[in-house]
Amino acid sequence: MDLEQLRKTAAEVVAKDDVKYLIGWKKGTYGYRVSPVFIENEADTEDLIFSPLCTANLVTYLTLVEKPPLPRGQKPDTRKVALMVKGCDSRAVAQILVEKGIEREQIIVIGCPCPGVIDVNLLVAKYPEVAENTELKWSGEDFVLIRGGEEIPVKREEVLAEKCRLCRYPNPVVSDIMIGEPVKPWQTEEDTGVSELEGKNVAERWEYWEEQFARCIRCYSCRNVCPLCYCEDCILDRLNPTWINRAVNFSENTAFHIARAFHLAGRCVECGECERVCPVKIPLGRLNRKLAREVRDNYGFEPGLDPDGKPFQASYKPDDPEDFIL
Amino acid sequence: MSAMLLNKDKWPEFVGKLSGKVWVPKVEEGEAIRFGPLSGEESKLPEYCNTRVPPKEIVFPETETLYCFQADEHEMTAPEIDERKIIIGIRPCDARAMKIVEKLFRWDVDDPYYLKHRELVTLVGLACNAPGLNCFCTSVGGGPASTEGLDIIMFDLEDRYLLETITEKGEALLKEVEGLLEEAGQDVLAQKEKLIEAAENKISRSVDTEGIAEGLPGLWEDPLWKRVSASCLGCGTCTYLCPTCHCFDIQDETEGFEARRYRTWDSCMFEEYTRHASGHNPRPTRRERTRNRINHKYSYYVDKFDLIACVGCGRCINYCPVNIDIVEILRQVKEAL
Amino acid sequence: MSEDFEPNIVAFLCNWCSYAGADLAGTSRIHYPANIKVIRVMCSGRVNPLYVMNALQQGADGVLVSGCHPGDCHYMEGNYYARRRLGIFKDLLEFVGVDPRRFHMSWVSASEGHKWKEVVEKTVEDVRAAGPFEGFRRRQIDW
Description:
By secondary structure, chain A is of the alpha/beta class.
């Protein structure tokens, strides 16, 4: 991608009077980190980057905005928000539009066709992180790591994130401005994580998830990072009724993860953020992708493609499968 | 204080002879995620820089029953805390954190649960030979071989460990395994000094804490808070993984006629942390919450106990999903002073 | 599995069809297993999957949800939503490792006293075969 073009476009967008800020990515403070950035004036657009390290899904910030009570007489800020999206992120935008969580006129979507991002854990395992900020770029099919003036070629299959191996929509499905040329969708791999578990029997699966869920510390980063977890009053924060107790034990953790996965059934756009941020490495994506697979195979539905469509769980077809009914 | 050597081949024998439950870092999903009880299969300590979840959870469990009660009776029963635990491989920063947090749990009213846990654990630390990328313990009063809070400190000398006792508890522990140890000579102690120096030199990040505690109150409305908290997601990763964060919430749980009151970790980064019953929230946005996190560690705690409530373990930097970096925040604070 | 295990099953029945169907079974003196604890809801579409989860967490060994036949919903389409929602929920439970025999759904109309008996018998039989569900109980640990 042409960064010059990105920065120029961003500067034009930010210069408009009716734009509050632009959400993009900038270099992080060390190593391979990239940090989301909120840009309010033209000069700061120089910080913007778009690279295989830009894993964070910025759509989260659209619904994460807090609305504290305003002082008397002050009007709410109704200016637009611009944001950069990759293919998977744009599906989250579409899904939120379907759910009428945001209004289309309130956002400016800058689409960035994405040839695939990396899994930072895989990259670190292969090329240990150093203190100085390191760049990674796309180069043909593969990546190239720029560190201390040296260019190290990195094979795509070695470090590509799992969600990207399964990605079918590398090009944004919703956008106002598109930066660069669309990329050609690649051959997706089989979702072995889900298939492997499907092949086990229920007792083995229970054992597997027991081990995973027991580890959860309930920091709720999976919930907070998810662009589609935006209920104003989340059941996890509610005390009356208490659906899920705050106690951290296997029972409550399992209930939490079942509830979280289920609330995303037919909504999850498989951006993989929940899995990426989990501090105790629970493979949460498998739960979501399993449900996405069921929804796709049995109901012929895929979320986040048509902004004018209907939500999966708030619609039905008379001939939905009912082989499970007694 | 004694300095003894333990050959690494004797490790299984060593941990087997100790009286008490031995906790060591456990590898899950290819990484040392947290401490857990020894299963008996380990022949050595795993390779790790530090565990993701700090060992604070051993003395300050994420969920702890305070007491149980029944609807038709007037009695409450508190759980008994009586298990002796020996934590082997705790890093000096985490042990130091326990010492810092203990001040709080002893202040005002003694917290019987925390102090009981604390009394029952013996901390056998492992000095860092290779500190992590985001370690900055030397800036906040610690170091790769700091002995604060520890009962014994171990040094990894490739094929053997050097064990130095710090407290009487540590002495007593080494008595139990006397047969396996040999006296360390002067050459080993010199080697240790070299290791410490090398480790200190490897720490690349630093914070200049001078004037921060006094200066923070003056930056209450500074625009920097808005800037550094803009990308915060409001999750609890930084606080839950912090070895010195100690906030908790008290909740009740009932089933039928039985109930219990328990406490769980809480995080100042959560929206409902300060929400009042009326619905009013004195920290309505993530700006105020981030400000509180930094202020609590670097200002309030210093005021109260003359200690910085941060040990520089770098976990909040390593695991923040959006690269909010406390070293960078402090640099900006310093700049704004 | 012990022979004398009596499963504890929570049944959510819609007010207009299944509850009336169960009522009919009762007034017609049809015998069916007493393991079912009925909770009446206005529509099967009102059954939040969290109800099912909470029932399992609080000691139920199995859960049954029953509503009107498709097309017969008192509220026109409530049971269609229930079918979609709970169908997916069943898939999720199964994927997490909950025995699929523990959660059932059925359509029983107000005139189907006999069908109600069959549904209950089948459910009880299934849950009995699956055994007591201890793994997920809330009050298992550290109290």
